[in-house]
Every structure is written in C-alpha cells, then in structure tokens.
Amino acid sequence: MLMRWDVLLALLVGSVGGVVIGAIPGVGPAVAIAILLPATFSLQPIVGLTMLLGIYGSSMYGGALPAVLINTPGTAVNALTTYDGYPMTRRGEARRAVSLAYAASFWGGMFGILCLIFLSPVLAIVAPMFGSREIFLAALLGIILVILAHRGQVMAAGMLAMFGIFLQTVGLDPVTYTQRYTFGATWLSSGINLIVVVLGLFALSQAFLLLVDKDDSPHPQSLDGDLTMGFKELFRHKRVATVSSGFGVLMGMIPGVGEFTAQFLSYTYAQKTSKNPELFGKGSPEGLIASEASNNAVPAAAMIPLLALGIPGEALTAMMLSVFYVHNVIPGPQLFQQHLDFIYALYLSLILLNLIVIVFLMVATKPLTYIIRVPTRFLGMIVLVLSFVGVYSLRNSITDCMVAAAFGVLGLVLKRLNLPIVPIILGMVLGGIMEVKLRSAMARVKTPLDMIDRPIAFLIFLSILFVIGLHVRTLVREHRARLPELDHDMHDTQQR
Questions:
Q1: In the predicted model, is pLDDT for residue 409 greater than 90?
Q2: Where are the domains of the chain?
Q3: pTM for this model (two decimals)
C-alpha cells in the first residue's frame, strides 16, 4: 500500500510541507490541514491521510526552529521550547539548541509510533467489546475531558462545546429525516458543514488576525555547521527523553488532554529529577529535551482513540476523521478486524515521516531560517486566499464562503478574548457520534442503569465520575487556599 508513487509523494509533500508550515510563526498545522482538507477528499484514503499525518507529525519539528532562534513558537505546542531554547541561543549556543530539539523530537516521535504498534494487538482484542453504549459514554468522557482541560476557562469551554453540539444538530435528523433548526432556509437543510466551520475558525480567523495585527518580519540568526551533534548529547539524557516520551504517549491517548499537559508533566519531572534544576528556564538542555520529546510523542498516541473507537482527541484528529467518513472507512471496532493492512500502512507511514523529516532538517535548516522572515501580513493574505479557495471547492457554494467568513470573525473574536476554539470542533464531531450511538442504544435500554450494566460501560462511567470528582476537589482546594486572602482583604477594608 505504501510503495506507490502517489502515497510516497503525499508523504513527502506532507512531511516537508509540515516542517515549513511549522517554521512560519502564526500559521500552524491546524491552518494547513484545514486548507488541504477539501483537496484530500478526492484522493484515496491512504493518500489523503498520509499527507495529513505528514503535516500533523512534522509541524512540531519546524515549530522548534523559531522557538529557539527568535523566542516565538512556530506552533502553539512549541511554546515551552522557548523557555530553554532561546536562552541557549542568547548564550551563543543556537546550533546546539536546534540540534538538540531535532534529536528530542525524533526520539519522541519514534517512541510514540513503537508504543502504538505494540498496543495495536491489544486494541484489536478490546475494540469489538465496544457497543453503542460504550462508544456513547467514551465520547461523553472525551467531551468532559476537553472541557476540563481548559483550566480557568471551564465554563466558557463548556458553553463552546455545547455550541458545537448544537451546530451539529442543524439540518436533517439522522434517524427520522425531519428538519431541525433550519427555519425554512433551504441552505441549512443539509446542515452546517464541519469543514466549512474548521476552515473559518482556524484558517480564516488566523488570516484575519495576521492582517489586523502589526506587520512583522523577524530576522533570526543564521545556522551553520553539523546538526547531528544533538543526538550524541541526547544519549546523555536518555532517561529524561524516554520518560517525557512516555508522558506524551499517555496524554495523547486521553481525549482532550494532548501536548500541553504532556509537556507540563515531563518538564516538571525533568526539573525535579535534574542535578541542575536552577538552570531550567535559563537554557537547560534537559528542559528542551523534555518539551520536544513529549510533544512529538503525542501525534502517534492520539491516533489510538481515533482508530480504535472513532473518537478524536483534539481538533487535528477530528479533521482526519472527516477524511475517513468521506471514503466510507469508519474508524472503530470493525477497522482492526477488516482493514488491518490499512492500519499498519498508517503506522509505517508515521515511521517514514519521521525519517524523511530528520534527513530534510539536516540539509535544509539554513534555508528554513529565511522562511521565518516572511512578513506576517503577506502571510495573512496568502492564508485568506487559500482558505476561500478551499471552502469554495467543497461544493462550489458562495453560501459556504459566507458561513466560513462568519465563523472566521467568530474565531477572531475568541482569539482576541483568549477563549478556546477546539471545544466547538470537538462538540460538532463528538456530538454527532453521541447522538447516533445514544439513539441506537436506547432500543435496548429500559432503565438508566441499563446504560452501564456491561463491564466496559461501567468502567467508563466510573471514569466520568472520577474525572468530575477530581475537578470539584481541585476547585474546593483552590477556594480554601483563597479564603485567608479574602478574609485579610475584608479585614483591611473594615479597618479603612
């Protein structure tokens, strides 16, 4: 399946394109995947998915370059790389920092893929045990985790996830085929297209942001010399690299958690176990390794809930799910039984992707530093044009362009208010799964307890209660910690 010219070309384009996209601050993989999605619908599933996986898996490699050189992460998940990467650059160790970031990324990426390959036989056994009830509860757990992952913004994330679920209900009812929330508008009868919303919220909103912000053209220092030195240094810190990659795999498998939590845990672990914890945030190689190894282990692990249960863990895997559906390849329990060759082709493509990326970076890092200098408004204009071309190519519809523009403005407002966009997309995707599976399960459910009368359903239900209980406990602790401050402020006010 992989040894075809079109598949290998897609993998090459995705891998190299992802590195380039990641190296340009302000764009990121979500924008690139959103723009490319309409084009992948006309390709065979293995071709389209290898291209998208290439962008998803390689963008973090490229994102480390501006994070280290100009203190600006190329992708959001490279933010922690700036903590130790940029101080190393200011000390005159830019080449060492970039080389170490590449080596840690490669280690994390390969570790994640190997874990995924060895876990796949387990998935093949467990996946058939998931019926409608289990998948409904797993999707519900996914939405709850996505909401609770936004610490300090739980209420806003919850409302945005509910908004996403509502958007999914517009159009024809999937069971009775009656109109819902269309208000007589014919253009709403087919529903609100997920890809139109994705392009609006991610690509167009980013284009608007780049256009309205001040024009900027960074000038990173040039990199010369051998970049393989990082691999030698990495082996001196292989414990940190391995544990950080392990955190990335664990967090990637849990829907709604992802790279940020993995980075935080691995960075904290590296600092607590380091012989030089005072160097963290001032140019510690261990901090840089922890950040890059953990975030690059996530993409392979994030494919586990997507492939085994058909449940995406975050926005990028939600976009990939639409490619599966378009080609009638439905992720879930049946996929491992009927299309195991397809699954292994995806695993091998992930391995090839990491090898292609690391070879490309060894020879093309210097030219990539010039790409970082692209003026932001020029970049915004390119993203804007490509986004509208992508939206229009879906159904040759001006209405879709108008809907995407409206969601682009909404995305811009949310970004300005520092509110999350991902819950809307996951609400649309998981909401659709939940509705179909709940209706299918209700035929065999007579009492509420029947929903959890099977072992896996009961375990998922307990997980939901545990996650909510843990969050409530955290809120209570935080409230108690603030009480002395509130009492002190009240006492000061009374004295005045």
A1: yes
A2: 5-444, 454-496
A3: 0.77
